[in-house]
């Protein structure tokens, strides 16, 4: 089973990433619309109470901004995942073309590392803001994920490995 | 790059065209162009051997060292 080139594992993974990418765009679009609807409906809490049911207008007036904030945070998280999947798609397209040490892959891997770190920081921020706004809610514990930070470091090291590979590729190109 | 390649002079002296040399030495015309313009970073011994054989010369006739500013290493370009 080949790892690189047409009809290899890379091309199969590229197809999966393409499907995930399109689905994520749809998800981000849906979250954007929901956030917009939540913000607009928060101006008319009585209408929101009638539409959703299960609460009074005063309750919705309290819950509305929290819901909108939650949707906004989810949208932000989805955009981060979208950036990672997009860069992975581009990396896998170079792998499918049989050119793993393309110079652009270095920047793509660094972007993935930064996005992973950003997503982890957003998670802490969401927890901190949630704990501040909703002091009684303790469903999400602020655990520091060592796996996430380990992944970030591994991706940055891989970016350096690819940089070295791209340098060697350039040397090979200019060797007559 | 302080290494100069005197390929043009040798081709003129031998009354040989670059495409003919490329064909006889088994090097592409594009690579010969990179060599002529000083863009090459390294030359394989096998290429040097083929060029010297076809041009009937020594490596010293083909290459010369002229002191000058060194080029930036290729990893700076990334």
**Which value, in Å, is the CA radius of gyration of chain B?**
13 Å
Helix-strand category of chain B? mainly alpha
Percent strand of chain B = 5-15%
Distance between the termini of chain A: 33 Å
Kindly provide the radius of gyration of chain A, computed on alpha-carbon positions and rounded to a whole number of angstroms. Answer: 22 Å
Task: List segments of chain A where confidence is low: pLDDT < 50 over at least 5 consecutive residues.
Answer: none
Largest sheet of chain A: none
Most extensive protein-chain contact, per-chain counts: A-B, 11 and 16 residues
**How many helices of chain B?**
5
Task: Walk me through what this model shows.
The complex is a heterodimer of chains A (176) and B (78). In chain A, α2 packs across α3 (57-96) and α4 packs antiparallel against α5 (146-173). Chain A is mainly α. Chain A has five helices and no strands. Chain A is elongated and about 75 Å long. Chain A has helices spanning 9-41, 45-52, 57-96, 104-133, 146-173. With 78 residues, chain B is mainly alpha-helical. In chain B, 50% of the residues lie in helices and 8% in strands. Chain B has helices spanning 7-14, 18-25, 29-36, 45-55, 59-62; strands spanning 3-5, 63-65. A two-stranded antiparallel ribbon of chain B has the order 1-2. Chain B is globular, with a radius of gyration of 13 Å. The A-B interface holds A 103, 106, 163-164, 166-167, 170-171, 174-176 and B 27, 31-32, 34-35, 39-44, 47, 74-75, 77-78.
């Amino acid at each position: 089973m080949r790892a690189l080139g047409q009809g290899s594992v890379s091309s199969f993974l590229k197809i999966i990433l393409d499907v995930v990418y399109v689905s994520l765009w749809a998800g981000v679009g849906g979250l954007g619309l929901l956030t917009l609807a939540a913000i607009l409906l928060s101006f008319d809490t009585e209408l929101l109470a009638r539409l959703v049911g299960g609460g009074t207008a005063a309750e919705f007036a309290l819950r509305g901004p929290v819901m909108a904030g939650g949707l906004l945070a989810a949208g932000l998280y989805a955009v981060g995942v979208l950036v990672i999947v997009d860069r992975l798609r581009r990396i896998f397209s170079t792998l499918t073309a049989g050119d793993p040490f393309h110079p652009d892959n270095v920047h793509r891997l660094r972007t993935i590392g930064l996005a992973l770190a950003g997503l982890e920081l957003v998670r802490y921020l969401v927890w901190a803001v949630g704990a501040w706004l909703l002091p009684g809610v303790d469903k999400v514990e602020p655990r520091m994920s060592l796996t996430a930070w380990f992944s970030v470091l591994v991706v940055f090291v891989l970016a350096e490995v690819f940089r070295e590979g791209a340098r060697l590729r350039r040397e090979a190109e200019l060797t007559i | 790059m302080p290494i100069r390649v005197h390929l043009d002079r040798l081709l003129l002296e031998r009354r040989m065209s670059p495409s003919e040399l490329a064909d006889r030495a088994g090097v592409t015309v594009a690579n010969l162009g990179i060599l002529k313009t000083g863009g090459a970073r390294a030359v394989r011994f096998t290429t040097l051997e083929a060029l010297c054989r076809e041009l009937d010369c020594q490596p010293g006739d083909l290459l010369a060292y002229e002191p000058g500013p060194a080029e930036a290493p290729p990893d700076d370009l990334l």
